[in-house]
């Protein structure tokens, strides 16, 4: 089996751009040449690696090769940076190493963005963050789109190392006025069916799990969707509805009395850092910073108390 670097680069370009024409444009070759390279790659591995759809997508075998292509690109970029020297790499934008990762919105809004900042200050990197729910980020690793991901999936993906980070604790809170108006006798099922609620989006399983735990039966309250972590907690703080907000994010508002807990209940969502098994100093540095920051801001692994 002869897998060429040219074939891997072409495959990655096709999937990144979505079409053979798009890949041809970024590679500065003709669409016919792109097609020939993909056919040569498929002949070499004896597998179909690209579904000729719009946009083009990788087959399961193609996903394996995309991961290999991204790993190869990272190692080549790291070697080039070392050869040029660290000072030249920091001064030249074109020398920065592209580092695609995935993170959930709540981590980005609270403890993870400073990690990205520290990586940029200390290393010649250009980090691209793909954002989705923590329960969905594993798919970015499987498809080869990212080098590492913050995920709630405790099962390691083949070819990846998994590091427990701890848990993000969510507290159901609302303003004092909101509680007095909508939940004066506590969060009963009847009250929760009427009280406005804030959700991140229609896939926000954390809020729905909290609602089910509090109501102890299915209820359908009026819902406002706010698909941004910072604006979500601001919506709660402004009295639009109640919601379960990360403790690390809502703590100042709780201390100042701008919001109160509607019940003595919390939900802990375990988080993990999954990353490719590579001998990569850059990826190792990002992993060390991520684990260290999580130790400060998250409930430590092994000390997670049950929801109550």
Mean pLDDT across every amino acid position: 88
Assign the CATH superfamily of one domain.
Answer: Periplasmic binding protein-like II
Q: What are the secondary-structure elements, in order, as H or E?
A: HHHEEHHEHEHEEHHEHEHEHEEH
Task: Specify the biggest β-sheet.
Answer: 7 strands, mixed
Structural class: alpha/beta
Shape verdict = elongated
In which range does the helix fraction lie?
40-55%
Number of helices: 13
Outline the low-pLDDT stretches: 87-92
CATH architecture label name of one domain: 3-Layer(aba) Sandwich
Number-wise, the strands total 11
Q: Class of one domain in CATH?
A: Alpha Beta
Query: Radius of gyration from the CA trace?
Result: 23 Å
Distance between the termini: 56 Å
Task: Using the coordinates shown, work out and report the CATH topology of one domain.
Answer: D-Maltodextrin-Binding Protein, domain 2
Roughly what fraction of the amino acids lie in strands?
15-25%
Features:
308 residues; alpha/beta; D-Maltodextrin-Binding Protein, domain 2; seven-stranded mixed beta sheet; two-stranded antiparallel sheet; 13 helices; 11 strands; 49% helix
Task: Explain what you see.
The chain has 308 residues and is an alpha/beta fold. The protein has a domain at 168-268: Periplasmic binding protein-like II (D-Maltodextrin-Binding Protein, domain 2), CATH 3.40.190.10. It is built from 13 helices and eleven strands. It has helices spanning 5-17, 20-27, 31-45, 60-84, 86-91, 105-122, 138-142, 176-182, 189-194, 205-215, 229-237, 247-256, 281-297; strands spanning 50-51, 57-58, 97-103, 125-131, 148-151, 160-174, 197-199, 223-225, 243-246, 260-261, 267-276. Strands 3, 4, 5, 6, 9, 10 and 11 form a seven-stranded mixed β-sheet that branches. Strand 3, helix 6 (105-122) and strand 4 form a beta-alpha-beta unit. Helix 1 crosses helix 3 (31-45). The longest helix is centred in the N-terminal third of the chain and has 25 residues, at 60-84. The chain is elongated, with a radius of gyration of 23 Å. The termini are far apart.
């Amino acid at each position: 089996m002869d897998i060429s670097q040219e074939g891997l680069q072409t495959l990655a370009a096709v999937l990144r751009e979505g079409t053979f024409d798009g890949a041809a444009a970024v590679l500065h070759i003709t669409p016919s040449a792109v097609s020939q390279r993909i056919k040569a790659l498929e002949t070499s591995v004896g597998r179909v690696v690209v579904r000729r759809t719009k946009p083009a997508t990788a087959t399961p075998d193609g996903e394996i090769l995309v991961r290999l292509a991204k790993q190869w690109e990272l190692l080549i970029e790291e070697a080039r940076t070392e050869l040029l020297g660290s000072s030249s790499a920091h001064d030249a934008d074109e020398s920065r190493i592209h580092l695609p990762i995935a993170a959930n919105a709540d981590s980005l809004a609270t403890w993870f963005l400073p990690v990205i900042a520290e990586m940029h200050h200390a290393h010649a990197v250009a980090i691209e963050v793909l954002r989705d729910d923590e329960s969905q980020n594993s798919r970015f690793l499987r498809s080869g789109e990212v080098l590492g991901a913050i995920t709630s999936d405790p099962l390691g993906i083949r070819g990846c190392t998994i590091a427990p980070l701890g848990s993000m604790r969510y507290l159901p809170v609302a303003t004092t006025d909101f509680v007095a108006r909508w939940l004066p006798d506590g969060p009963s099922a009847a009250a929760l069916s009427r009280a406005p609620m804030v959700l991140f989006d229609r896939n926000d399983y954390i809020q729905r799990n909290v609602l089910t735990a509090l109501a102890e039966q299915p209820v359908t309250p009026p819902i406002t969707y706010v698909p941004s972590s910072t604006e979500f907690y601001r919506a709660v703080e402004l009295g639009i509805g109640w919601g379960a907000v990360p403790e690390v994010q809502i703590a100042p508002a709780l201390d100042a009395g701008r919001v109160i807990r509607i019940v003595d209940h919390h939900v802990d969502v375990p988080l993990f850092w999954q990353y490719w098994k590579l001998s990569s100093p850059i990826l190792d540095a990002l992993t060390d910073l991520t684990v260290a920051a999580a130790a400060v801001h998250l409930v430590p692994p092994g000390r997670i108390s049950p929801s109550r």
